[in-house]
Design brief:
The protein contains seven helices and 31 strands. It is α+β, with helices and mostly antiparallel strands and about 450 residues long. The longest helix has 19 residues, at about 70-90. The N and C termini lie far apart (about 70 Å).
Amino acid sequence: MIPILRLLIPLVLAWILLPSQVQAQGPCLTDADCTSAHRCVSSRCVGQVLATRLAPPPIRIFIDPRKSYCDMGQSLAQAVHTQLTLFLEQVEFPMAGEAPIVLRRGAEHQLKLIDLALATNQRALVRIQPDCAPNATAVDIHLTTLDLAYLRTPRHLTMTLSEVSGSLKSFRGSLQRFANRLRSIDGAPPGVAGSRIAMACKLDRRTKEIFSISSSGTNLRRETQFNNLTMLPSWTHDGLIAATSYVQGNPDIHVDGVPFLTTPGLNTGIDFHGPSGRFVVASAPNDAQHLYLGDSSTGKVLERLTSSRAIDTAPAFSPDGRRITFVSDRSGTPQIYVLRLKDKSVRKISRHGSYNTSPTWSPDGRSMAWARRTFGERHEIVLSQYPPGKTGETVLATGRYSYEDPSFSPDGRYLVVVRKNRTQAEPVLINLRTRKIRPLSQEKLPGPCSQPAWGPVLVGR
């Protein structure tokens, strides 16, 4: 018994003397109750990566018509319910097939609804309340969220509608913003309703153009009209699309259809970092391809970052702008590296495989994903924590298809990748929580589409 006590006493003393920030990994009310590396999600402290992997809390939408005294109040409330449900599904709330609950007049039914929500472990109630006078030509629609965990109403939205199709469209951005904020009610990151995904689509043997599609897989539109070979799309922080095009005979970088970087030689793989106002690009003015740092506002190249005889390509800024991941064959075959801008030091990240390419950062900078060749021209998608740890690399997508070109969603919950075989190529979504894979587009694509790039959240687009 005494030897056991001798072991336990130092452990107990060490725990007592540990800083409170280290101990605070249990229950919480806000992020302030957790360490800087954790977030308060569903009343417990979890890591930043885990915060994006948790299932959304159950919620319920109901219509409260007690202030509606006009004929169109109910129909407009139903239309708002339908549109909000669509946006909530885009941010991962399982709302499909749910019929709107319509309250009867009087408070008794509302109290019963709250009791039912608490009994069934609902996290929040969203009330849609039409407000209008008899024979009114416009209706005020009030959206209110009741957070049942803390009995507070943190989210409000009021819209004045006169008819469904036109006036509701003008509030599209407001509803997207409401849905994105509702996704963070448990402390997790906001949703991505309002974001778009760019991709290069092959129209014929000599033509590729850039198209974009909403994160819900709808509203496909053509972004470039070069009628040439245009590829490798990326995004600026304010939602403009950059791509490499041969429209002027040289592979130049264009932003929003306007020439941006026209250095003679190969210019590919540009990435913009909004907070610092810089860009990084892979360019080959001579023979070897190197990485260059530039000013986003002027398009001027500021400095050369790499100088080996190898080919360095596919650069991407870390979210904090301090590091750049890229692909290089300096070790003999293409591998993933990270360059620290402060001292230009380079570290190899990929551990397995003879061919690794297309690296991308998670929004919190704590994970990376890339494509790794398996057999022949077939690739699989690999996820790794950063800095690399003992967990190693996790394979997310592999099999009879080739999975390539990963890009994280702005909330870190999804990867969009291209799934291809010998004749077809289409973007698909990987849910990082469930590992399920599904096609991105709900519309017919113009041809084989690849190189998807997920853009920023810009509601109302």
